[in-house]
From TrEMBL, chains A, B:
Catalyzes the oxidation of 3-carboxy-2-hydroxy-4-methylpentanoate (3-isopropylmalate) to 3-carboxy-4-methyl-2-oxopentanoate. The product decarboxylates to 4-methyl-2 oxopentanoate. Substrate binds at residues 93, 103, 127, 218. This is 3-isopropylmalate dehydrogenase. The gene is leuB. It comes from Streptomyces lateritius. PROSITE patterns: IDH_IMDH. InterPro entries: ICDH/IPMDH, IsoCit/isopropylmalate_DH_CS, IsoPropMal-DH-like_dom, LeuB_actb.
């Protein structure tokens, strides 16, 4: 396509600052003949306080008109925990059927990690995005009394598991090492675990070149810090994916550089790209936020829209910047400028 | 009490080897006037293959007669994943109401960690042991078809949450730093999350000296590798506790030294002590297993039975051994002997 019609949601806290840099680099990366149209939306804490709304039906209809969504971060201490997360972020992931939650982890040479010995880290996590314990199914009886019972229901369907497992196999197949690890807890969560394991094994037959592997989620966290080089592609459920991708980010350069895509592979609804980090209200407005995660999310966005060359250029610019930044302290804006210059040149 | 009537369950794989060392050190630690009686039980893969049994009603009655249980490890690749875990280990935790699953993490000077800079790690995790996603509630319809739906129900009660939260506050109160962190995912798992958070805040009022803190489980994994020194006591749900204690073990000396207690604080049923590691069939029978985790579990066992001095002596022996072992390669037996000698002297 020769135009990109982008929805931009800066959101809360540092979201504003990092999204500005993402857009700067996006503009620098796009070929002359691709027209970029952006429309900004004001979702987040401010709008919630003013109107009580997180995401209306009209908002959803408006967002549907876009080719993709760039999100900064949503969340603020002034709003009760969960209100914006469930009322906006998860609502969009579910409504737009973002079932492939893609989170790459790559430790670049020279980039700081809490791990000793600068291990080789280069894997992607394909996290299921529309099922599992995230469905909001559950409830509470006798709430607030000494006899309260609260439940959370993890819902897993063959349809939902198979499509994300298939996506992960295809991604593994396309990578040099061709290795896919299923992460679950099938020794305890037996019903969901059997479903995931059976489907994983069934789809594996269609990908004979892909080496497969299974790890319980608890063991996976051990390997993420002791042998992260063992991972190539990981496929996992929504909650396990949430947990291990934060850990993966921590060991591979920190959440300042962790990108993610909430992808609807069919293109029926727009996909949404966002840094893994939150709105970090403690450093908001001070120019301290690292926009790299947002810039890398823009690369995922471009790749999703078919602009592979431009996505690669952004990733190379980030790699060069990370490798060379050393201990330099730069503002959000300076990092964005430096990346835009590299991408344009 | 002037006698200890101990149930010993070596179990599978390296369980046999490590339990032998645990008993050796236990014998060396006990004061002359405490009589130790042990009875060995053959639970695990071998018995399962021979009889199809994992834990019968008669077994449960027999185990109830003991003051405590020492467990090596249960699990073998020859048994389908989950059969022994659910049919034996989780069954016992639930039947004996082991609601306080206690898992200390302490990185001793000189002990290897995958983290840079030898951080100060000294915290305990109080993991709920009888509720959450571990209850086995759930099911599957249209199993094995493209229309399968599999569910897992996390069950959380005010009764179950309050008692473990109270236990954790008491433990935090007794420690120098007096800090307690609740780990959950209350922005997504709203029903269970509110129950945990409300009870945590309510019980906190009774412990004004304890500093409290809340972290989402994903953020907690980040801090476990970037700032583990921030933790003193953590209280969390069964599944989150499973995940973060493996990670905690990995950063604080490895699962070779991670101990745990499945505790019934009322003493109505015997508590069970076990290393966090599994049966490690790949190294079983070769004298390669580190018995330290089992020996430290014996210390937890002694403390639980009121033998604080002896528990402390074992922990000091382990600390001295770990600090001095350097790169020496010793057999399971040699480590056990060295610890027994230190404890006796
Ligand atoms: C904010 C929260 C709802 C979200 C999640 O749990 O998915 C976040 O942690 C993430 O990983 O994108
Ligand atoms: C073996 C398994 C059922 C068990 C658990 O999940 O609790 C283990 O991982 C543990 O942490 O003790």
């Amino acid at each position: 396509s020769h135009s990109i019609n982008l929805a931009v949601i800066p959101g809360d806290g540092i979201g504003q600052e990092v999204v500005a840099q993402g857009l700067k680099v996006l503009a620098a990366a796009l070929p002359q003949d691709v027209k970029l149209e952006t429309k900004e939306y004001d979702f987040g804490a401010k709008r919630y306080h003013a109107t009580g709304e997180t995401l209306t039906d009209a908002d959803v209809e408006a967002l549907k008109q876009h080719d993709a969504i760039l999100l900064g971060a949503i969340g603020d201490p002034s709003v009760p925990s969960g209100v914006l997360e469930r009322g906006f972020l998860l609502k969009l992931r579910f409504l737009f059927d973002h079932h492939v939650n893609l989170r790459p982890s790559k430790l670049l040479p020279g980039v700081s990690t809490p791990l000793k010995g600068q291990p080789e880290i280069d894997f992607i996590v394909v996290r299921e995005g529309t099922e599992g314990p995230y469905t909001g199914n559950g409830g509470s009886i006798r709430t607030g009394t000494p006899h309260e019972v609260a439940t959370e229901v993890s819902v897993n369907t063959a349809f939902g598991v198979e499509r994300v497992v298939r996506d992960a196999f295809a991604r593994a197949q396309a990578r040099p090492r061709k290795k896919l690890t299923l992460v679950h807890k099938n020794n305890v969560l037996a019903y969901a675990g059997h479903l995931w394991t059976n489907i994983f094994n069934k789809v594996a037959e269609e990908f004979p070149e892909v080496t497969t592997d299974y790890l319980h989620v608890d063991a996976a966290t051990i390997f993420l810090v002791t042998q992260p080089e063992r991972f190539d592609v990981i496929v996992t459920d929504n909650l396990f994916g949430d947990i291990i991708t934060d850990l993966a980010a921590a060991v591979s350069g920190g959440i300042g550089v962790a990108a993610s895509g909430n992808i609807n592979p069919s293109g029926e609804f727009p996909s949404m790209f966002e840094p893994v980090h939150g709105s970090a209200p403690d450093i908001a407005g001070q120019g301290k936020a690292d926009p790299t995660a947002t810039v890398l999310s823009v690369a995922l966005l471009l790749r999703h829209l078919g602009h592979e060359t431009q996505a690669g250029r952004i990733e190379q610019a980030v790699a060069a910047d990370l490798t060379e930044r050393g201990d330099s302290v730069r503002t959000t804006d300076e990092i964005g400028d430096a990346l835009a210059v590299r991408v344009a040149s």
